[in-house]
Every structure is written in C-alpha cells, then in structure tokens.
Amino acid sequence: MADPLSASPARALAARWHDHLLKERRRSVHTVRAYVATAHRLIDFLEGHLGGAVASAALRELTPADLRAFLAVRRSQGLANSSAARELSAARAFLAFAAAEAGEQANVPRLKGPKQARTVPRPIAPDDAVRLAEEAADGASEPWIAARDWAILLLLYGGGLRVAEALGLTGAALPLGDVLTVTGKRAKTRRVPLLPQVREAIERYVQLCPYGTSRDELLFRGARGGPLNGEMVRRAVRNARRNLGLGERTTPHALRHSFATHLLGRGADLRALQELLGHASLSSTQIYTAVDTAHLMDVYRNAHPRA
C-alpha cells in the first residue's frame, strides 16, 4: 500500500512542519497540534479549490485571494474572530515554512486579520481562590489526591504558573527551597519565589503520594501513578466552582491572572511581573494594568455613595 504522504507533497510537508515546530522551534504539543491541523485544513481547501493534489510549489504561489477564500470557508463554519485570526497566523506560518523548505524567500500573501476585542482577564478574589482550592481538595477520592489538588491550585495562584508548567515539574525540584525553577513555553526557564504555604502544601503531597518522587519522574501523578492530565485539574475546578456558585470564568488559568493582578495591585513593577509570568514581551504583561484598573472601578462603583 502506497504511503499517503508520498502521494501528497503538501501533506508530507505538513508532517515535516510538525517535526520542525516540535523539535526545532520547541512549541508546545497543543500549539503544534493546532497549527498542523490548520495546515491540513488549508490543504483540504486547496485540493477542492485547485482541483487535485496540492504540490509544494502551489503553496508558494498562493495569492491573497486564495487565502481570503480559505478564511471565508472557515468563517462560514462558525469560526469566531479570535479563532479566525489564529487560523490565518498558522496558515501564514505554514506557507513561510513551505518557502524555506524550497530555499526561497518567504513571499506569504499579506492579508489583514479580523479585528479582535482585547479581552481583559477577570481575576478571582484572594478568598475565593483559597476556597476554590479547598473545595477541589474536599472533592478528591483519596487523601493523597486531595493533597495533590490543593498543592497544584495553590501553586497556580501563589506562583502564577500555567497548568502545563505545574504538571511538568519533576522530582528534581525537591527538596524545595525559597524559589522554584519552572520550564515554560519554548523550553524557557525562570525562577519563581515559593511562598511558605505553597511549599508546605507540596511537601505534604510528597509525603502522602504512594508512587514516590524520583528525580526523573513527574512530581504530580495521576490516580494510577501515570502523568496527571491537565483536564483532570480543570474538571476538579469545574466541580468546585459549581459547588461554590462561582462563575464560569473561574478556571485554573484564572488563578494565574489573579496572581498577576493582585501583585500589580500591591505595587509590583511591570518588568518584574513579566519575569515572574515568563512572558516573552512586556506587551503581554501590560494587559494586567487594564485588569487592575477594571478592579478599581468595580470597587469605586460599589463603594462610592455617588457612583
């Protein structure tokens, strides 16, 4: 049976792009999956649009009209502005890779992306963040799992980690000190101060975990000892927020937003906050100034007698 990739040069190119993103660009597994899925959707569209298998040269000859037609199809399938913008970005990156593979200068069609409303993250009040972690722990099936969930959620709020960063920690982080070395996006590392309460929560989990904590193994384990899936953390938070009557925006990632907002509200410097969050650019961190302003306006409206 013939290899389907050999019959489709464009799909073979998408397979090489997958390896390039994962191994050379060090993008996250989720990002690679999403980008390569866009590449295959673009190829599917072009096979119908051009009437046959897509050669690599065809990718390098696409016009703005071709790309606009692809986006129009995707929008007709219900794609929102923010998703359409990501789709366009991924498609352009794939076309640039196609040109680089052929040793040509990238001449990717220029196309203005759809306008996006800049959303402001909604922070969780400090008391609610702690209540959420407590409720998630209370809903666990075993004491060591309760200690695990409590430790993870405190780590997200107390250290501003992403879920993937927390779940990527290994036993090499032990014994814990005053700071924790975290590996973030694109394998970049940063040092995050570890609050005493967070350190105690992790140490208690380590004491109760039945699977041990060797240096090369993941620190946070699933119920059967394997890697803990991020969806399990999100599910625990969904159940907890439902029991507490908190809104749908109360997610594990919202704990990271809260970490940033509360630090900024206490006078943290934007550059220091950028370092703590592991943002590549300051512009990613500056959104939290809007968050803090929104919080102040809420307080003002609720408290001022003339508001």
Which features characterize this protein?
hpI Integrase, Chain A, 2 domains, 307 residues, two-stranded antiparallel sheet, single chain, mainly alpha
Structure description:
With 307 residues, the chain is mainly alpha-helical. The chain folds into 2 domains: 98 residues; 178 residues, hpI Integrase, Chain A. It is 61% helix and 3% strand. The chain has 14 helices and 2 strands; from the N terminus they run αααααααααββααααα. A two-stranded antiparallel ribbon has the order 1-2. A hairpin with a 5-residue loop joins strand 1 and strand 2. The longest helix has 22 residues. The chain is elongated. The protein starts with a helix and ends with a helix.
Characterize this entry briefly.
The protein has helices at 4-7, 9-24, 29-50, 56-60, 64-76, 81-101, 126-138, 143-159, 163-167, 196-208, 230-244, 252-265, 270-277, 282-303; strands at 179-183, 189-193. It has 307 residues and is mainly α. It folds into two domains: 4-101; 126-303, Orthogonal Bundle (hpI Integrase, Chain A), CATH 1.10.443.
Outline the secondary-structure elements.
Blueprint: H1 4-7, H2 9-24, H3 29-50, H4 56-60, H5 64-76, H6 81-101, H7 126-138, H8 143-159, H9 163-167, E1 179-183, E2 189-193, H10 196-208, H11 230-244, H12 252-265, H13 270-277, H14 282-303
Antiparallel strand pairs: 1-2
Coarse structural class? mainly alpha
- The total number of structural domains is 2
In the CATH hierarchy, the third-tier topology of the largest domain is known as: hpI Integrase, Chain A
Straight-line distance between termini: 73 Å
Cα-based radius of gyration, to the nearest Å: 23 Å
Q: CATH top level of the largest domain?
A: Mainly Alpha
Task: Give the strand tally.
Answer: 2
